[in-house]
Design brief:
By secondary structure, the chain is mainly alpha-helical. It has helices at about 1-25, 40-45, 65-85, 85-110, 115-140, 145-175.
Amino acid sequence: MTKRLAQLGLYLALALILAYAESLIPFSFGIPGIKLGLPNLVVVMLLHGGKGGLMPRTAGRGVGGVRDALCINLLRIVISGFLFSGLYTILYSLAGAVCSFAAMLIGRRFRKFSVVGVSVLGGVFHNVGQLAAAVLVTQTVYVGYYLPALIAAGAVTGAVLGIAAGELAPYLMRLTDGR
């Protein structure tokens, strides 16, 4: 249990470092709100943990799976929100995370999508969730004009993160498992 908790702590720390690094990168695509979503790399890797996943469990005690991914995702959003941004960012991030995580779970459950496909679903639906929160906060549907650009950005960044997750997971697993 202690080893597993330490491993999850490392993944949370990695997600927070990626969130901080992303906050330092000045992206300007001309559309507000578009980011790479680097911390979601950790979530995608953890979500695809478990038997036959990116990060297979060893004797049932390793990290990975739905519960670990959800826990790290929520903790990362709240902690990084307080450290690097503010309450509105936490609100928007949580809305995006709920939609994104649900879409990734559905895509993963049907087993029709690869890691990249599940990550693309996550990227697109994260933006959909954030846009839904923006509609509620601003009380206008006109922010919906951003939807096509946000879907395209979510697909591209999701694909990049999915490819990176597939490539990095074996190395990260070896690092955290001590192999």
